[in-house]
Specification:
single chain, alpha/beta, Rossmann fold, 2 domains, four-stranded parallel β-sheet, globular
Length: about 325
């Protein structure tokens, strides 16, 4: 079980060699409170400690490194709700690549402020990620730019999959790995990496009930448009997944579960209070799944905390 479509564990290992000098090897730390509460050994993969504050840097770096010199000179355009844009902006600055980032008009103020510190042109357009992506695609054609997809692109997925390699090396006898899911790039990359090393490991995705695009598409057996309700987990919100990520989830991911907005807020608060770590709501959905008992604890579990870029007003409200 080493490959699927155009992505294999070889691609993920290559991505790690490409990006390792530019990222942090984030720790896998035990959670005393969750471990006690669920009588299991539960660890957090601390991608909230990653440069730019999110795992998204991994895929962005790998994609930018895959571009030819001619493509780099042309420049890039991307759509993002924030964290992917920050990864692309960081990589673009690192490699001297010009470009544009389109974010929804209601994107997190914290992420927009961070994006404004980079040289790429920031454009606020559309009511959600999908409308921002439509506008970015228009700019791709009009300006001749290279489009960098937030989650559905082999180099992006391979870059995100490096998180899975690191978990398996730090905790080789892990039984369950829990992964937040929006469009599915992270869970696909992690699942391909993990299953290639040990097919018996359970890889479980978690989405908010307010934006269940992946779960609805799994149930329908095809990509379906899913309305987005109000959600604190803005980084996971989107009306569509893609055929590529859906197929990988169907083939490699053991389950995708839904959690309530209340559980996400409680999980976020618990992580701040008990673990003394800052996470955004999208990063807390794995803990929420345990709190709502959507996932049963196995002897050794790893939960990926995907990012820390939370707006201070949201944090105050939740705390």
């Amino acid at each position: 079980m080493s490959s699927i479509g155009t992505i294999s564990v070889k691609d993920i290992n290559f991505a790690r060699d490409q990006i390792k000098r530019h990222i942090y090897l984030t720790p896998l730390e035990p959670s005393p409170q969750l471990s006690h509460e669920f009588s299991a050994e539960i660890h957090f993969k601390l991608e909230n400690w990653q440069r730019t504050g999110s795992f998204k840097l991994r895929g962005a770096l790998n994609k930018m490194l895959s571009l030819s010199e001619e493509e780099r000179n042309v420049g890039v355009v991307t759509a993002s709700v924030g964290n992917h844009g920050l990864g692309v902006a960081y990589a673009a600055k690192l490699f001297g690549i010009p470009g544009k980032i389109v974010v929804p008009e209601k994107a997190s103020p914290a992420k927009v402020k961070a994006l404004k510190s980079y040289d790429l042109q920031l454009i606020e357009h559309g009511r959600d990620y999908d409308e921002a992506e439509e506008h970015a695609r228009e700019l791709e054609k009009a300006d001749g730019l290279i489009f960098v997809h937030a989650f559905s692109d082999p180099p992006i997925i391979a870059g995100q999959g490096t998180v899975g390699l690191e978990i398996m090396e730090a905790l080789p006898d892990v039984h369950t790995i829990v992964v937040p899911v929006g469009g599915g790039g992270l869970v696909c990359g992690v699942a391909i990496a993990v299953k290639s090393m040990n097919p018996a490991v359970n890889v479980i995705g978690v989405q908010s009930e307010a934006s269940p695009a992946m779960v609805n598409s799994i149930r329908a057996g095809k990509v379906v448009e899913t309305p987005i309700e109000e959600t604190v987990a803005d980084g996971l919100a989107g009306r569509f997944v893609t055929e590529l990520t859906l197929k990988m989830v169907q083939d490699y991911v053991d389950d995708v579960v839904l959690v309530s907005e209340d559980a996400i807020k409680k999980a976020m608060k618990m992580i701040v209070e008990s673990e003394h770590m800052l996470v955004e709501a999208s990063a807390a959905v794995g803990v929420a799944a345990f709190l709502e008992q959507k996932i049963g604890a196995t002897p050794k579990c790893a939960i990926i905390l995907t990012g820390r870029n939370v707006d201070v007003t949201v944090l105050k409200r939740i705390l």
